[in-house]
Amino acid sequence: MCSSGSVTLKVIVLGGTGLLGTHLARIGAARGHDLINPSRAELDLRDYRSIQMIEAMDAAACINAVAYTQVDLAETEQDEAQYLNAQLPTMLGSACRRSGKRLVHYSTDFVFGVGFSSPIAEDATPCPMSVYGRTKLDGECGIAESGCDAAILRTSWLYGWPGASFPRSILNAARAGKALRVVDDQIGCPTYAPEVARQTWDFVEAWPDDGVYHVTGLDPMSWCGFARQVVGAFSAATGTHTPEITPITTSEWPTPAVRPGYSVLDCKKFGELGFAPPPPVQECVAEFVSHYLADL
Ligand SMILES: NC(=O)c1ccc[n+]([C@@H]2O[C@H](COP(=O)([O-])OP(=O)(O)OC[C@H]3O[C@@H](n4cnc5c(N)ncnc54)[C@H](OP(=O)(O)O)[C@@H]3O)[C@@H](O)[C@H]2O)c1
């Protein structure tokens, strides 16, 4: 029985072992949907035959959470990033069109670059600054050109449990007594992966319309501000003192990939669909910390 009280859907979830995919699979199953959720060992998407297999699967929709997400490594592993972020979604789009499946695909705030200082709407002109951002934009374009029924959900600064993400790195470093120096001049919206998964299922169950949507947390801040939220929540939960965090500039933390200074996405369009909005960052971070503590 679906929690929405509506239909049980047969849905392919790709990337179900990843940060977002874990929650897509968990929430989809909890809502009673009939999931086809192959691991990479069961269906390696680098193998072109996997697309034919997906096309042949009996399902109403395919949710693609597979991507090449190592933003810095993508600068040198361009072919791998191009394949997973651009060619694969393009082929999935064509396979979904031919087999009449709807496609949900994720993209990123990193399709935008310089020139923004207020929340960015879906129809703003993309201008990626990195290989990751360019390949993700190519994936968006490939899906649009495939002509399938698709929703492209652009999200940003994902974090969650289990596994690696920024808040976990910050808490591990703080607990190890390391000095915390965190970039304070990049502004974006931290986004709790379980919430994007929940919003994805709300969308898939209702499917209001195809299109590009911005789906992020609703509290803009810097990485330093986010780190302060995380250590503050940890201190509150454990009764320990809050470690100092030194704000630094991007130039003090050089990385192979250039990142946007401002990449807050305007989520009004998705908000107007009427689904529950994500909780404030404080609530999401507190929930993250409780899972972090449970894993210790
Ligand atoms: N993370 C962020 O901060 C962020 C921000 C904005 C947008 N996004 C977008 O959100 C989506 C989800 O990101 P994420 O962070 O959840 O990704 P992730 O944790 O890196 O997970 C990627 C998934 O892709 C799978 N995969 C990779 N290569 C594969 C292959 N050849 N065959 C089959 N599966 C393969 C991985 O499987 P294995 O477990 O086997 O490796 C994993 O399940 C992506 O589209 C990403 O671009 C992410």
Write the layout of secondary structure elements.
Layout: E1 10-14, H1 21-30, E2 34-36, H2 49-56, E3 61-64, H3 78-99, E4 102-108, H4 131-146, E5 150-155, E6 158-159, H5 166-175, E7 180-183, E8 187-188, E9 191-192, H6 193-206, E10 211-214, E11 221-222, H7 223-238, E12 245-248, H8 268-271, H9 281-295
Helix pairs in contact: 1-6, 2-3, 3-4, 5-7, 7-9
The structure holds NADP nicotinamide-adenine-dinucleotide phosphate.
Would you mind describing this structure in some detail?
By secondary structure, the chain is of the alpha/beta class. It has a single domain (10-225, 248-295), classed as Rossmann fold, CATH 3.40.50. Helix content is 39%, strand content 15%. It has nine helices and twelve strands. The strands form four sheets. The protein has a six-stranded parallel beta sheet with strand order 2-1-3-4-5-10, sandwiched between helices. Strand 1, helix 1 and strand 2 form a beta-alpha-beta unit. Helix 1 packs across helix 6 (193-206), helix 3 runs parallel beside helix 4 (131-146) and helix 5 (166-175) crosses helix 7. Residues 1-5 have low confidence and may be disordered. Bound molecules: NADP nicotinamide-adenine-dinucleotide phosphate. NADP nicotinamide-adenine-dinucleotide phosphate is lined by residues 15, 17-21, 40, 44-46, 65-67, 69, 84, 106, 108, 136, 155-158.
Which radius of gyration do the C-alpha atoms yield? 19 Å
Tell me the count of domains. 1
Could you give the order of the helices and strands?
A: EHEHEHEHEEHEEEHEEHEHH
Shape category: globular
Number of strands: 12
At CATH level 3, the topology is Rossmann fold
Ligand roster: NADP nicotinamide-adenine-dinucleotide phosphate
Largest sheet: 6 strands, parallel
As residue ranges, the low-confidence spans are 1-5
Which band does the percent of strand residues land in?
Answer: 15-25%
Query: End-to-end span in angstroms?
Result: 34 Å
CATH homology superfamily name: NAD(P)-binding Rossmann-like Domain
Structural class: alpha/beta
State the helical fraction. Answer: 25-40%
The CATH architecture assignment turns out to be 3-Layer(aba) Sandwich
Total count of helical runs of at least 4 residues: 9
Overall pLDDT metric: 96
Spatial sequence of strands, sheet with the most strands: 2-1-3-4-5-10
Give the CATH level 1 class. Answer: Alpha Beta
